[in-house]
Structures are given as structure tokens and as C-alpha cells.
Design a protein that fits this description.
single chain, 965 residues, alpha+beta, Methylamine Dehydrogenase, Chain H, Immunoglobulin-like, 5 domains, six-stranded mixed beta sheet, 7 helices, elongated
């Protein structure tokens, strides 16, 4: 009776509350990510780190970036996956209605018992032992499977209706194997314990309600938990009676839901309810459902922790769900009672109440509460932006707004009272003397928080500092030595309790744009800037002539980010709030955290950080607040790994676990890398090079590498992966690769080619000897012919060079050369020579009247007529423009006058046609001189005298001949 009363009391003590971890950061993987079926049935993680996801339509392997489907083509005839398991020998087992399958390479091999299949029901659990045995239930039999011999050796451990100390029920459901070899099973509507060939049935008399018991788990304290379709019970260590831990509220009544029970990283029990995830927290169940952002469609079917400790949930209809930052990140938004998602400030009072200031007013979270409560004391302006919240020395909470209101919280009346109206307030800071300092848009203010009457005044002693007009201080901090530092954009003020000092801030000779400040445990300063990144000043050693000298703190994760706020916590860690997440430095390394880690939002807001009494950290963002329960877990090392997932060429796949020798091919060789890390994948970058071809490393966020038509030779493919946000790098791995030469570059082909070449050379030599004579004869004939053609061509070129381009008459150079030759000849032979210089009359008038084409036609026709009149031994040449020279060897004036007259007549006797319908009359004037061998003159002298005679001919009326005496 006492036991029953105790059970009743314990049962009443169990209740279900909304989950304290309010807004769950979740990432859903669906068809858009390559998971083509969204009804997850089972999950497992193998030794390499691959996550295997069983669905109603195929098995999928996830490497963190993509999913690969396995189905009938890989040996799984039924695409419905009922169970998955990786044993202690790192083997992957798959169960479905068609039987049990073992993954070997990229194929799945069926396991048969006496030639028959071993079908596995959905939700079935597998267990293994160090000797390689696999334990499972199939068709109401408990089997042990051993593959030590390479062939499956099956033993039925517990058939139904076995006649042992106590008969087992007809049906077997769930399975759990203890480390000592004992089994717990769901048998009929009871729980069976099978130990040393003895069966003990736990039923209602031992606290086990009638149910189908499908899943078991032993927690860190040694308690055995059992989950049925509608009940949860627990057996304390050394107890003889199960305790009912079924959640109230009829949340475990849906039939056909695959049930499971497990534990999270902190050892808290987790299980699936009809429409939620439930978690046992000391004395009650916490319920995570749609209100917390968890949508599960037809139910949660599986739970898995990856190698990085990340929690994954399988859903029936919504795909794969990852709980980002499970166990360490909590998020709170308007869905949990905040007045606004935009959070600006936080503080906890002496009673443990967390006060937050938001864009739309303040709110409180009391210890043990799951919802924020907004404050409403009748003041009309509480919904303004609460820029700051502090607790003074006496434990009173103060708040300030961007609209300039100074508020004090009355803990007894639970109301805020407006104490002063000021310019826009950016920050507040209490000092050790009980004063609260205010940084506003119009300068600094201070008041004594302990005074009976609040009097907000400007600090004394600032007038003599010559602070530039328009400077406003937006942030401030208190050093351990009691100094208060006030930050403007490019100025700092320091107040040591008595005296003020102002400092210019310089970095690389310029004033950085400061955006945040934090005092350090060493009385130094951290400064966040817009352009120079994170700076540090040693306040005691960096001041020179009123100028604060700074040094930059290297931080790869802060590159190209805006720093909104800074805080050095009690550990000495530095927290930086940015526009793309929060950066944390633990004095050794940096980490960057964003939504992929469980952070509620990437952009921080206001004075972003508040360190709680238990050293947990609260972070304000533009979309709620995040609570980091155990900041030390942020720096837990999660070793990066990378591997070659596949190698392809010409449609063939190759293994990457040993050196690779390939025949040469013009087709590209593709190597697909993978990093089986599921945290912060957006910051992963792959690095690789092919030694023997490349000296430098290549980097890419895409894990596919292609090499086209590699030359024959030996190579080494080296690769590793890095995570910029976590500042981690994996070990460098390598794969030796040999590209064999093509057949036409082998030594045998070269020998065959050399032989063929020798034979060809011999044949060609004989043929050449036979044809040499013919070729030589033909060549000589061709040479002779070409020589003759060249000589003719040379003469033609020479003549062409001596002819006028328009009239084809000899040009001036040719005429001068011929005149010299004829003069020499006449002098040697003592023979006469006539030289005539003629000019066309009024030729300019022809050009001006009829155009230059008409003038050209006249010149051409005049030359034709002159050439038709002179003797063959005479020469007609163009001296320049419309002037012509005529050389007449062998004639003197007496014998040459007739020829001269005929030349004059040939020009004028007939009109010259300048177009199809027009002709003009043309005349000419001659100047003629005879060369006397007895009184010789040069060519130039002859032409000069002929030109003078031509001039007289022009003066005496033109169209006539004038001779030189």
C-alpha cells in the first residue's frame, strides 16, 4: 500500500512544460538539398563520418554537402528502409521487409538464413559485441549473426515459445543489449529480461503497463528507460519495480509511429511524442513543438548525433532536421513574450530576474519562467527603444531609451518610474561610488543613484578640456583601477575619480573611426573601429603628448566585418559583436559563430553582450536574443577531416585507398573531395595541388577537381581542408597517381617504329638513287627556264622603273641618263645631236577648265603622237608636268628641222578627245639646241639653253619652234 501511494505521488509529480529553450534554431534538409524523399525512417553514422539516412524511398548518404541515393541498382530491392546500424567492426547494416543487407564496397549484399530472407520491421534496433556478433530480431526470433569466417553464421538465441525457466510471449518487439550480455526485449505486452538462459517477465505487477515496448536506453546514472507506444517507464538501479514516467496530457496516443528513446550530450533523456520532442529535465518533461519552431509533420522517427556532437532528427514528411547548437544555444524572440525581436540591452537583478530592453520597451524573465513578461505601469513611453539597462550598487535596475528617458525600476511595485528626461541616451555605466554615467548625443551626464532626489548633471571639470564641438560619446567602460573611459568617434576621455584627460587616437598616423570600447583586466583598452579592425591600447604605456597609440590585433574572422560592440568577460575572453555573427577570442584562437552554429541571428545589436552570474553569455541581435549556456564548449576541438570521396574518368570509378595507376586518356580525371564535418560548413575551403604538375596550392569552396589529358608520369595529389571561422586546418593527405604512357609512347612501339623507319629509309634511299638523275635533269631545266624568266622580269622591272607612270614615256631620270650617254657618244664619234624641249601651251587652262582627268588625257595623247613621229633611235621623255624632252641623235639643225616641224604639227593638227562627246585643240612650243662636238656642253647646259629658247618661243606667240644659235 505504501508503495502504491509512493507511485501515485511520483506520478502526480510529473508534468509537461513548454521547453525552456524557447526558439529552437533548426535547419531542414529537403529535396532542395538532394534528399528526394522526406519520410525518414532510420539514421546512422559510420566510422568515416558519413551520415546515412533511410527513407520510405531509398537510402541516402550525406557528406554534409550533398546526398547520394542507394536503391535497387546498389542491391536494395525494396526502397523502404526499416533500420540502419553501424557495428563495432565499422560495418553498415540495412534492414527492410526484403531482409538484412551488409554494405560491401558500394554494393549491399543480402544475408540469408537457410536460404531464406530475414525481414526487419521498422524501428528495429541492432546491437553488436566486440567479437563481431550482430544481434537483431526477425520474425519473432532473436538472432546472433557472426561474419568471422567471411560467411554469415546465424544462431537463434531466443525463439518464441522457448521452454526455459519461463515461457516467452509469442511476439518480440524492442531490443536492448547490456554490456554484460543481458537482453531486454519487448515481448507481448510486457518487458522481458533474458540473462544466462533465464527469462524474467516484467509486467503490471512490476510497474509495466500493457503496451508494445519498442525501445530501451540506460542513462548515465544506471537507470533503464523503456518506451512503448503509449507509455514511458524507468527502472532505477537495483530496484525491482518500474516507475511510470509517461508524460501527462495524452501526447503518446498515435498508432503506427516508430518510437525511440535516447539521451542528449548532457545525458538528458529524449523521446518522440505524437507532435513534439520531449526531454526529461530532473523532475518533469519539457515539450518542444511548433511553438518552439519545431515542425515535425507525421512525427519524429529517429535521433542521431554526428561525430561533431550535432543533433539530427528524422521526420515523417519534412525530411531531415538539424538542431543547431543543441544543448548549448537557447534563443528567445517575440514568440516567447519579448515586446520586440530587436533586443538592445540586458541585465540581471539581485533577485535573479533577467531584464531586457528592446526596440519596443522592456521585459522580464523570472527564474523558472518560460515566457518573458512585458512591463506596463501606465507610462505612455515604455515602448520606446531601451538602449541601456544597468544595476546600481544597491541592486536597483535602471533603464534608458534612445528618446532620452531615464527610468528606475521599483521592485516592490513592479513598475518603472521616469526619473529624468535627457537628450538621446546611448549607454549607461555605474561606477564604484554609486554614480551612474550617461553617454548621450549632447555629451556626458552623471547622477548619484543613491541620492533621495535624482539630480542628473553634467560632470564638473570638462570645460577646460577643449573637446571639439559636435563630439558625442557613444560608449564607455570601467577599468579595474577605477578609471572610466568614454569613447567618441576619434576621441577618448578618461576620468580617474578626480581629474579628466582627453586623448586623440592614432593608428598609422590617422584617426580611426571608433565604434566600440571595452576595458581589460590589465587596465588596457580594446577598441573596435570601422576601418582599422580591432585595436588594443596599453593605457599606461601608449600615451605620448596626449595621443593614444594603438596596435592592431590580428583577427582573420573579423576581416571585412563591422564591429558593433566589445566585451572582455570574467575569463579574459574577448567578445565582438559584428554585422555577420559574433567573434570570440580565448587568448589563443578566434572563433566566429553565426546562424549555422545555432545563433538566433547574424547581426548583433546595441550593447550586444551580457555575462550572467553563472558566466553564461547573453547576446542581443536584431531578431531576438541568444543564450550561450556553456561558453567553454565553443572552443571544443572538433578535428577537421577530408577524404577523396570518389575518382572518375571515362565513366569509370576508382578506389582512393591505394595508389592509383591509370592508362593515359584525353578525357578529364575528376577527383571529388569531401569533409565529413557538419558544423559551420559555409566556412569550409578545400586546398589541393598535383605535385609533378603544380607547385602552388589551389583553393576552392567546390570540392571537385578536374585534370584534363594528364601527361604520362608519376604524380602525388595532395589535399586538405580549412575552416576560416573556426581557424582550423586538417592534416595534409595525399594519393599517389601514375599515368601510364599510351601505346604509341611505349618502348616496344618505339622499337617497332625505329625498325619501320630503317626499312623506310633504305627503300627511300634506293628510290632516291633511281630518281636522282631524272630529278637532276628536270631541276637543271627548271633552273634554266627560271633564270631566263628572271632576266626578262628584271629587264621589265628596270624598264618599268624608267617609265613615267601616266604616259609611259621615259621619265626624267631615264632621259638624263640617256642624254649623258648620247652626249658621250656624239663626242666620241664626232657626230651631231639635237635636243628639243617642248611645253604644251596654256595647259593650266585645260586643267582649270576641264579638270585634271582631261589634262591627263591630253598628256597621254601628246606622248603617243610624239612617239609615232620620231625615229626609232630617238627618245621621248617627260621632263616634268607638261614639259617633254626629245633626244634626236645623229642630226644637226639643218637636217633635223623637218622632223622638228613634223613633231610640232603632230601636236596641233588634230583635236584631242577628252571625253566621249568633247575634244579640244592643243598646241605646243619648242626650244631646240644642237650639240657641237667641237664645242661640247653638259646635259644641264644643253637643257638650260633649250629652256631659254622655249621661253622665247612662248614670248613670240607660242605654237612655234625657236632654235638656239
Amino acid at each position: 500500500m505504501v508503495v502504491l501511494k509512493l507511485m501515485f505521488v511520483l506520478t502526480l509529480a510529473i508534468w509537461v512544460v513548454p521547453a525552456r529553450s524557447q526558439q529552437i534554431p533548426l535547419r531542414y534538409y529537403t529535396q532542395l538539398d538532394g534528399l528526394s524523399n522526406l519520410s525518414v525512417t532510420a539514421m546512422a553514422s559510420d566510422a568515416d563520418g558519413y551520415m546515412w539516412v533511410g527513407t520510405e524511398n531509398g537510402l541516402f548518404r550525406c557528406n554534409g554537402a550533398e546526398f547520394r541515393r542507394y536503391a535497387q541498382e546498389q542491391g536494395l530491392p525494396d526502397p523502404f528502409i526499416a533500420a540502419l546500424y553501424v557495428d563495432e567492426q565499422r560495418r553498415l547494416w540495412v534492414g527492410n521487409n526484403e531482409g538484412l543487407f551488409l554494405k560491401q564496397g558500394e554494393r549491399f549484399v543480402p544475408i540469408l538464413h537457410n536460404g531464406k530472407k530475414l525481414p526487419i520491421t521498422p524501428g528495429q534496433k541492432f546491437y553488436s559485441s566486440p567479437d563481431g556478433s550482430l544481434y537483431f530480431i526477425s520474425q519473432q526470433h532473436l538472432y546472433a549473426l557472426n561474419m568471422a569466417s567471411g560467411q554469415p553464421q546465424l544462431q537463434v538465441i531466443l525463439p518464441n515459445q522457448q521452454n526455459l525457466a519461463q515461457a516467452t510471449p509469442d511476439t518480440l518487439y524492442g531490443l536492448y543489449r547490456e554490456k554484460n550480455g543481458d537482453f531486454w526485449l519487448g515481448c507481448g505486452s510486457s518487458i522481458c529480461q533474458y540473462s544466462g538462459n533465464q527469462i524474467h517477465v516484467w509486467d503490471a505487477a512490476q510497474g509495466v503497463p500493457g503496451d508494445q515496448w519498442l525501445s530501451f536506453h540506460r542513462d548515465n546514472s544506471g537507470q533503464l528507460w523503456a518506451r512503448g507506444e503509449q507509455h514511458i517507464v524507468v527502472l532505477q538501479a537495483s530496484e525491482k519495480h518500474f516507475t511510470d514516467r509517461t508524460p501527462p496530457g495524452d501526447i503518446l496516443h498515435k498508432k503506427g509511429l516508430v518510437t525511440w528513446i535516447s539521451a542528449d550530450a548532457e545525458g538528458r533523456i529524449l523521446s518522440n511524442a505524437d507532435q513534439s520532442l520531449i526531454r526529461w529535465n530532473k523532475d518533469h518533461w519539457e515539450n518542444f513543438d511548433r511553438k518552439n519552431g519545431l515542425k515535425i509533420a507525421g512525427g519524429l522517427t529517429a535521433l542521431l548525433y554526428d561525430k561533431d556532437g550535432g543533433m539530427w532528427l528524422g521526420s515523417r514528411g519534412l525530411g531531415l532536421i538539424k538542431w543547431l547548437g543543441s544543448g548549448n544555444w537557447e534563443s528567445w524572440t517575440m514568440a516567447q513574450g519579448m515586446p520586440d525581436d530587436v533586443a538592445l540591452s540586458m541585465v540581471r537583478d539581485k533577485d535573479g530576474v533577467l531584464h531586457i530592453g528592446t526596440r519596443s520597451g522592456p521585459a522580464q524573465l523570472r527564474p523558472g519562467q518560460r515566457q518573458f513578461s512585458s512591463m506596463n505601469d501606465g507610462l505612455e513611453k515604455l515602448d520606446h527603444q531601451w538602449s541601456g539597462m544597468v544595476v546600481d550598487n544597491s541592486g536597483v535596475v535602471w533603464g534608458s531609451t534612445y528618446s532620452g528617458q531615464l527610468m528606475r525600476f521599483d521592485a516592490k511595485a513592479q513598475v518603472y518610474q521616469q526619473m529624468a528626461s535627457l537628450p538621446q541616451i546611448f549607454r549607461m555605466l555605474p561606477d564604484r561610488q554609486g554614480n551612474i554615467w550617461l553617454a548621450t548625443i549632447e555629451g556626458l551626464f552623471v547622477f548619484d543613484a543613491n541620492a533621495s532626489k535624482i539630480n542628473v548633471v553634467r560632470p564638473a571639470g570638462l570645460d577646460g578640456l577643449q573637446i571639439p564641438k559636435g563630439v558625442n560619446f557613444r560608449d564607455l567602460c570601467l577599468s579595474p583601477n577605477g578609471n572610466i573611459w568614454f569613447m567618441a568617434r576619434d576621441h577618448l576621455l578618461r576620468f580617474d575619480g578626480k581629474n579628466w584627460a582627453t586623448f586623440e587616437v592614432r593608428y598609422n598616423g590617422q584617426s580611426p573611426y571608433m565604434s566600440a570600447i571595452s576595458c581589460t583586466a590589465e587596465n588596457d583598452l580594446w577598441l573596435g573601429t570601422r576601418h582599422a579592425g580591432l585595436l588594443r591600447a596599453s593605457a599606461s604605456a601608449s600615451i605620448s603628448n596626449g595621443v593614444l597609440q594603438l596596435r592592431q590585433q590580428e583577427s582573420p574572422v573579423l576581416k571585412n566585418k563591422i564591429i558593433f560592440s566589445l566585451l572582455e568577460d570574467s575569463r579574459g575572453w574577448l567578445w565582438a559583436g559584428t554585422d555577420a555573427g559574433i567573434a570570440v577570442w580565448n587568448k589563443k584562437q578566434w572563433r566566429l559563430f553565426n546562424q549555422s552554429n545555432g545563433f538566433v541571428w547574424n547581426e548583433t545589436n546595441g550593447h550586444s553582450f551580457y555575462e550572467d552570474n553563472d558566466a553564461a553569455m547573453w547576446v542581443a541581435t536584431s531578431n531576438g536574443i541568444s543564450h550561450i549556456l556553456k561558453p567553454e564548449n565553443l572552443f571544443k576541438e572538433h578535428q577537421l577531416n577530408t577524404l577523396i570521396e570518389s575518382i572518375h574518368r571515362d565513366g569509370n570509378s576508382y578506389a582512393s585507398d591505394k595508389p592509383l595507376a591509370l592508362a593515359w586518356s584525353p578525357q578529364p580525371l575528376e577527383l571529388v573531395l569531401a569533409s565529413l564535418n557538419f558544423r559551420n560548413r559555409s566556412a569550409l575551403e578545400f586546398h589541393y595541388r598535383l605535385s609533378g604538375l603544380e607547385e602552388n596550392w589551389s583553393s576552392s569552396t567546390t570540392p571537385k577537381v578536374r585534370y584534363t589529358a594528364l601527361e604520362p608520369g608519376s604524380y602525388r595529389f595532395e589535399y586538405f581542408v580549412s575552416n576560416a571561422d573556426a581557424q582550423q586546418t586538417s592534416a595534409v593527405k595525399s594519393l599517389d597517381l601514375i599515368i601510364q604512357p599510351p601505346w604509341w609512347r611505349t618502348i616496344w612501339f618505339y622499337l617497332l617504329l625505329a625498325t619501320a623507319l630503317l626499312m623506310l629509309v633504305f627503300t627511300l634511299h634506293r628510290y632516291r638513287l633511281r630518281k636522282l638523275t631524272e630529278l637532276q635533269a628536270r631541276t637543271e631545266a627548271i633552273v634554266r627556264e627560271r633564270t631566263r624568266e628572271l632576266e626578262i622580269s628584271r629587264e621589265e622591272l628596270k624598264v618599268r622603273a624608267l617609265r613615267d607612270g601616266l604616259t609611259s614615256a621615259w621619265n626624267r631620270s631615264a632621259m638624263m641618263e640617256m642624254l649623258d650617254m648620247e652626249i658621250g657618244k656624239a663626242q666620241r664619234q664626232q657626230t651631231p645631236l639635237l635636243l628639243a624641249l617642248l611645253d604644251l601651251d596654256h595647259f593650266k587652262r585645260i586643267n582649270d577648265t576641264y579638270g585634271h582627268p582631261a589634262g591627263d588625257a591630253v598628256l597621254v595623247e601628246v606622248v603617243r603622237r610624239l612617239n609615232a613621229t620620231v625615229r626609232q633611235s630617238d627618245a621621248v621623255g617627260r621632263y616634268g608636268g607638261e614639259e617633254f624632252l626629245i633626244i634626236i641623235p645623229g642630226l644637226d639643225v639643218a637636217h633635223g628641222k623637218g622632223l622638228i616641224e613634223r613633231l610640232l604639227k603632230s601636236v596641233r593638227e588634230k583635236e584631242i578627245s577628252i571625253s566621249e562627246h568633247q575634244s579640244i585643240a592643243v598646241t605646243s612650243s619648242f626650244g631646240v639646241i644642237a650639240f657641237d662636238p667641237q664645242n661640247p656642253m653638259t646635259a644641264a647646259e644643253l637643257i638650260s639653253h633649250a629652256d631659254q629658247a622655249l621661253y622665247r618661243s612662248k614670248q613670240q606667240g607660242r605654237n612655234r619652234v625657236e632654235y638656239v644659235e
